[in-house]
Design brief:
The chain is an alpha/beta fold. About 30% of the residues lie in helices and about 25% in strands. Helix 11 packs parallel to helix 12.
């Protein structure tokens, strides 16, 4: 294809060569450079693609997309743009033939609730015959194929590659998680979202490798609502108006508030042996009863979001009710059978906001004790550790502090930071650095009526230590502990 085809939706300047040349493929990884390719020089947090200009030129790259001048032979075309990340997004769309325009794209942003809601929406729409792709924290789903995720929102090239494969697989729509990082880094730039959804906002993802401050976090979330036709928002969230300040879309709301367009009323918590759920009545633009096999008010919010979306796909009420009843997500309040006496669950809660929400929810079910097992990831904001320690200390009856993904930090140093937060409370705790041994301790000391939460990793199947990901799945650790206890 001609380079001009890839650049057709961009403003640019030709620094040398010609924009009319033929190119073979679009790349942003210097290791993939080959004869005839066009290389986009991305200025990343770890490395700067401009530094590899000479290297890719030697491999026969035909053109470079840059933000500043580079020193390469005169026979190589150099195109200058204001932002190469933005350019990569629009060029990727063109490269794959604008597949997003052949799909109804539903984007979900918010601090928590994104993953569960994407699966709920997918389940409901597929129940009435739609073929739905999914891109999210756990995986990308294309037809029968599942691709494990590295980022909540992949790089723009990968997104459009997935979209193209979805179109090829016969999908008519896609539901995707849209992270604030993805919006900030232009990974979703140029995507014509049919519907954009705002779940909620908490003070998370603030740090040197994420957002500089909370204002930037809010601003980035709001970008989605300048790219979609319809915005569906949680009107109960205190930051709703800030996030939608610059919105250009039509807006509908959901929530518990009477001002919500779709609202939940008559909420009832359901407890049966081995079962925690919630039942409520939908009011406003729709009118029916619904029951969900996932406990808590946040499950009500997640399901209201899915209901609000599916209303625009004309899904019959009975189909919505059936799909919500069976919707499950790996690592999101995932019950694991360990005893007749107490309940154990795995959840992805990995920040203070999500942990507090989960613990508050479980209190509504009146357990004898809440026992929380968790750690915090290394090379992330230390504030998260103090806050999670304090939340668990206040809201759990007992806390077992353990290791999560230490990355390049020492696990014990992270644990000490969590303890610093814990000591602001009167909460009882123990530190057991080895995660499997922490699980063993919890099971061996479980009491009748306890609810034990294994938090932080959820769906993850690895532990990252010193740059290496080792196999580790909380489900397998629980299974091994139970087998070893039985052998004894």
């Amino acid at each position: 294809m001609r380079l001009t085809q890839l650049l057709e939706r961009l403003e640019y300047k030709v620094l040398q060569g010609s924009d009319g040349i033929e190119v073979t493929e679009l790349i942003n990884d210097s290791r993939k450079a080959a004869a005839g390719s066009v290389f986009v020089c991305i200025s990343g947090a770890v490395s700067d693609g401009h530094k590899f200009a000479g290297e890719v030129a030697e491999k026969g790259t035909a053109a470079l997309i840059v933000e500043r001048e580079v020193d390469v032979p005169e026979d190589i075309t150099v195109i200058c743009v204001e932002d190469t990340r933005y350019a990569l997004a629009l060029m990727s769309a063109a490269y794959f033939g604008y597949p997003a325009e052949k799909l109804k794209v539903i984007g979900i942003t918010g601090t928590k609730g994104k993953t569960t809601t994407t699966y709920m929406v997918k389940s409901i729409l597929e129940g009435v015959g739609h073929k739905v792709g999914l891109i999210g924290t756990i995986e990308a789903v294309i037809g029968e194929k599942s691709i494990p995720a590295n980022n909540t929102t992949p790089e723009s090239y990968t997104i459009h590659q997935y979209f193209a494969e979805m179109v090829e697989a016969g999908c008519d729509s896609v539901v995707m998680e849209v992270s604030s990082q993805g919006l900030m880094l232009h990974r979703t730039a140029g995507i014509p979202f049919e519907i954009g959804i705002f779940t909620n906002l908490g003070e998370d993802h603030i740090g040197p490798n994420e957002h500089k401050d909370f204002e930037d976090y809010k601003r980035c979330k709001g970008i989605l609502f300048t790219q979609c036709k319809l915005g569906i928002a949680n009107v109960d969230d205190q930051w709703y108006e800030d996030v939608f300040r610059n919105a250009t879309c039509k807006v509908e709301t959901f929530g518990f508030s009477k001002k919500a367009d779709i609202r939940a009323a008559e909420i009832e918590h359901i407890t049966r042996p081995g079962y925690l759920g919630v039942r409520y009545h939908v009011n406003g633009l729709m009118d029916f009863d619904v029951e969900i096999d996932i406990p808590g008010d946040f499950s009500v919010y997640n399901s209201l979001t899915a209901i609000a979306v599916c209303r625009h796909f004309d899904v019959p009420v009975e189909n919505i009710k059936k799909a919500l009843k069976v919707a499950k997500v790996k690592g999101r309040i995932e019950m694991v059978k360990v005893s007749e006496d107490f309940t154990m669950m795995i959840d992805y809660a990995h920040n203070a906001m999500s942990l507090e929400s989960l613990l508050h929810t479980l209190r509504d079910y009146h357990p004898e004790r809440i026992v929380t097992i968790f750690g915090c990831g290394g090379n992330r904001s230390k504030t998260r550790r103090y806050e999670m320690g304090e939340v668990s200390g206040k809201m759990s009856d007992f806390t077992i502090i353990t290791s999560d993904n230490p990355r390049f930090e020492e696990p014990q140093d992270i644990i000490e930071d969590i303890i610093a937060g814990m000591k602001k409370t009167d909460g009882e705790y123990i530190a057991v650095c080895d995660r499997k041994e922490a699980i063993r301790y919890a099971i061996e000391h479980g009491r009748p009526g306890d609810v034990i939460i294994l938090a932080g990793k959820g769906h993850e199947t690895y532990q990252e230590i010193k740059g290496v990901k080792y196999d580790m799945d909380d489900r397998i650790l629980i299974k091994e502990v139970l087998e070893e206890m039985h052998v004894r």
